[in-house]
Amino acid sequence: MTVKYEISKSVYQTEDMGLLSIHDMLNYFEQMGTMRVSDLHLKVGAPPTYRVDGDLEKLKGPLLTQDMAEQLILPLLSDNSLEKLREMHSVDCSYRLDKTHFRINVFRENDGICAAIRALSADIPTAEKVGFPNDIWKDIINRKHGLVVITGVTGAGKSTTIASLINRISEERSCRIITIEDPIEYIFAQKKALISQREIGRDVYSFIDGLRSMLREDPDIIFVGEMRDAETIAMTLMAAETGHLVFSTLHTRDTAGTITRILDYFPPGRQNEVRNQLSLGLAYIVSQKLIPRRDGKGRIAVMEILNNNYAVANLIRTGKVEQLYSQLQTKGQGKYDEKMITMEKHLAHLVKEDLIEYEEAQKWANNLNTFAEAMRNE
Question: Which of 209, 213, 236, 362 is deepest in the core (most CB within 10 A)?
């Protein structure tokens, strides 16, 4: 007989918050706000653990047993997701609770079942509130073609930044937008644009299959959740070259490293071809991090932005990626309406504005010498 798991069943006894169900645990995100509490980790042999302002905080209570973990995790999975977990030992899925959408990864590990639950507010922030250090978002949403790559580590706010841009486009332009996501994170309302969102595993088999069919579906704007392999990257670049505005993500820490990562997906014999494609199709790379605010009220985005102007395109085409940072520094020396900025300059600006601590900025700088220089010149 199939076991029926209930989301409201109280399972976990805490010292200070009473007996909790997984519904109660997810509701905590609503109470605290997803800008502060971003993740919940459930693991056998450890208490439930939240990520608050970037740091892990464990609930005061017993270690999770296998039975407890199953009763907390499995109610969040559909029948299809449960079947995939049984077959593949891991599954990506999503769950909606009131105003909050959750991205969930469930997997098996040494101690048993485990889950990483990421909270995404149903309310998409405006582009003005995301934290761009300049107005390049206005240029991005008005573009007709080109590839815009948002990069950063897991939890850096990449999905939120892209959602804010797509949402603004949908408000202002009558166009066709199609997304391929794994899983769907933000749900877009139908406004001026006509939007279709497709989820890997439910609506389409893979990113590459979705891209192949998408190019026959008359899109103006494409969002590819992540560029995970050479074939997906090649197809994404082709879409950007052939008159589409394309958004995607990569897990890289800076703009120059993003170019290198893309090229590394391909064998040496194809890299010249890909460099040429990138030089023609790339529009922007935005590398971002989320840093604790000085006032302790959540985190703030800091960005490094590379605009593919003529000089940058030439460096990419000729394989001089190591010179890209110098180009960033040169073009980012002026006012904040420039289309490029280094991570260090944006950090220095936030320190001067008293929004983040100097010591915290140092921890997140890619280059300490450049950060020190940016502080002197700010």
Answer: 236
